[in-house]
C-alpha cells in the first residue's frame, strides 16, 4: 500500500500520462485490452487515493480524483474513462453507507490497488438473482460494461428479488460464470475495455450485496454517483481537449507550413492560425476554471456524508450539468478545429490527431447533452432541481 498526498497524486498522474502519450497512437490502432495501461495506474498507486485512510487508502477528496482523471485523459481518453469509472464504482462503498462492505472490499482494494469496473446500466435487460442457500445465483447479460475485462472487481446492477428494483452487487472478474463479450468495436474510446458481459449462474454471497440504486429508497449521499459521474465525464472531455491542443500546437510549431497566400514565413506567424488557437485556448481555459470550481463543490458535498441534504445535492447536480454542457461544446469544437490550424498533412494516420475527436464524439453521446441544458435552464427559471436518476 502507498498513501499519496494530493500533489503527489497529481504528479503521479502526470508521469503516467507522459508514458501513455509516447505510444498513444499505436495503442489506439492496436485496440488491445489495456492490461499494461491498468498496471501503470496500479504502479503509481492511483487506484486507492479516494479510499479512506482507515482501510489503507490515501483519504483524498474528489477534487484531487477529478484532476487525476483530467491529467490521464489528456494523454489517453480511454484510460481516463477507466480510472474515472473506477473511482465512482469504488466510492459506492462509501456513498451507499455500507461499513461492512467498506471494511471487507475497501481493505482488499487498497492493499492490492484494485481497479473496479462496472455493469450498472439499470435500463438494460434485467440481470436477476435467485436464492441459493444463504446466498444467490446471478444470471443475465449486460450489453454495456466498462472495464470488466481488465478490472479486479466490478459493480453489477441486478433486479432485486421480490421488488425488481436495481440492486448493486460486487463481482470478482475471475469468478466462474463471468464472460466478457470482447465485442467493443466503436469509433472511439477503444481501450476502455467496454462491451457486453454475460453472467451464467454466478455465485453471489451476502457480503457481495452492496446496496440499492432505487430512486424511491435513495439517500442524498447514496445518489451522488449520478452528479459525480457527470463531473467525471466532463473532466475526461476537458483532458481530451487539452491533449488535442497540446498535440496540435506542437505539430503547428514543428511541421505545419504557412499557406501560400498568407504572406508569412511560418504557420506560427499566420494571423488566422493565431486567432483560431486563441479562441480554442480561451474556451479550454474557461472550462478549466469551471471544472476546478465543480471539483471543489464535489469534494465539499461528498464530505458532508450523512448530513447531506437533497437541496445541497440538487445544487451539485445543476453545477455538474452546467460543466458538462460547456465541456462537451468545447471538446467537440477543439478536436474538430485543430485540423484547420495543422493542415492537410495532419490528417495522416501516423499523426493520429483523429483519436481525440473520435474519443470525444463517442463518449459525449453517453447521455444527451440537451437534457443537461434543460436541467440548467429549468433550475435558472424555476429553481427546480433535477430528480435523482442514474443520469442526474
Automatic annotation (TrEMBL):
Keyword Zinc: no
Domain of life according to the entry: Bacteria
Domain named Acyl-CoA dehydrogenase/oxidase N-terminal: residues: 11-87
Pfam families xrefs: Acyl-CoA_dh_2, Acyl-CoA_dh_N
SUPFAM superfamilies recorded: Acyl-CoA dehydrogenase C-terminal domain-like (SSF47203), Acyl-CoA dehydrogenase NM domain-like (SSF56645)
Keywords of this entry: Oxidoreductase
Record-linked InterPro entries: Acyl-CoA_DH_C, Acyl-CoA_Oxase/DH_mid-dom_sf, AcylCo_DH-like_C, AcylCoA_DH/ox_N, AcylCoA_DH/ox_N_sf, AcylCoA_DH/oxidase_NM_dom_sf
Residue stretches making up the Acyl-CoA dehydrogenase C-terminal domain: 232-366
Name this polypeptide is given: Acyl-CoA dehydrogenase family protein
Species this chain originates from: Pseudonocardia yunnanensis
Amino acid at each position: 500500500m502507498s498513501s499519496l498526498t494530493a500533489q503527489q497524486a497529481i504528479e503521479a498522474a502526470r508521469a503516467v500520462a507522459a508514458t501513455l502519450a509516447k505510444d498513444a497512437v499505436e495503442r489506439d490502432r492496436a485496440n488491445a485490452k489495456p492490461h499494461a495501461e491498468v498496471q501503470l495506474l496500479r504502479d503509481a498507486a492511483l487506484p486507492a487515493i479516494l479510499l479512506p485512510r482507515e482501510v489503507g487508502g490515501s483519504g483524498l477528496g474528489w477534487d484531487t480524483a477529478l484532476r487525476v482523471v483530467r491529467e490521464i485523459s489528456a494523454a489517453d481518453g480511454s484510460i481516463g474513462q477507466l480510472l474515472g469509472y473506477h473511482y465512482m464504482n469504488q466510492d459506492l462503498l462509501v456513498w451507499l453507507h455500507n461499513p461492512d462492505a467498506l471494511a471487507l472490499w475497501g481493505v482488499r482494494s487498497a492493499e492490492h490497488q484494485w481497479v473496479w469496473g462496472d455493469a450498472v446500466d439499470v435500463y438494460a435487460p434485467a440481470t436477476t438473482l435467485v436464492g441459493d442457500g444463504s446466498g444467490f445465483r446471478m444470471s443475465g447479460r449486460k450489453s454495456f460494461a466498462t472495464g470488466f475485462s481488465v478490472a479486479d472487481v466490478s459493480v453489477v446492477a441486478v433486479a432485486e428479488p421480490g421488488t425488481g428494483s436495481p440492486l448493486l452487487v460486487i463481482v470478482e472478474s475471475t469468478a466462474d460464470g463471468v464472460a466478457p463479450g470482447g465485442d467493443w468495436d466503436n469509433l472511439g474510446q477503444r481501450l476502455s475495455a467496454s462491451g457486453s458481459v454475460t453472467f451464467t449462474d454466478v455465485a453471489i454471497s451476502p457480503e457481495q450485496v452492496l446496496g440499492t440504486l432505487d430512486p424511491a429508497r435513495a439517500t442524498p449521499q447514496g445518489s451522488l454517483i449520478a452528479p459525480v459521474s457527470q463531473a467525471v465525464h466532463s473532466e475526461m472531455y476537458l483532458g481530451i481537449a487539452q491533449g488535442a491542443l497540446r498535440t496540435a500546437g506542437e505539430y503547428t510549431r514543428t511541421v505545419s507550413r504557412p499557406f501560400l497566400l498568407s504572406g508569412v514565413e511560418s504557420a506560427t506567424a499566420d494571423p488566422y492560425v493565431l486567432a483560431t488557437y486563441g479562441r480554442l485556448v480561451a474556451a479550454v481555459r474557461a472550462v478549466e476554471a469551471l471544472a476546478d470550481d465543480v471539483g471543489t463543490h464535489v469534494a465539499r458535498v461528498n464530505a458532508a456524508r450523512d448530513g447531506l441534504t437533497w437541496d445541497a445535492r440538487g445544487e451539485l447536480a445543476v453545477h455538474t450539468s452546467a460543466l458538462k454542457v460547456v465541456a462537451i461544446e468545447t471538446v467537440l469544437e477543439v478536436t474538430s478545429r485543430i485540423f484547420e490550424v495543422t493542415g492537410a498533412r495532419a490528417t495522416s494516420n501516423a499523426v493520429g490527431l483523429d483519436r481525440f475527436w473520435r474519443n470525444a464524439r463517442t463518449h459525449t453521446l453517453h447521455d444527451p447533452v440537451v437534457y443537461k441544458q434543460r436541467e440548467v435552464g429549468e433550475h435558472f427559471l424555476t429553481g427546480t432541481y433535477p430528480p435523482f436518476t442514474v443520469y442526474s
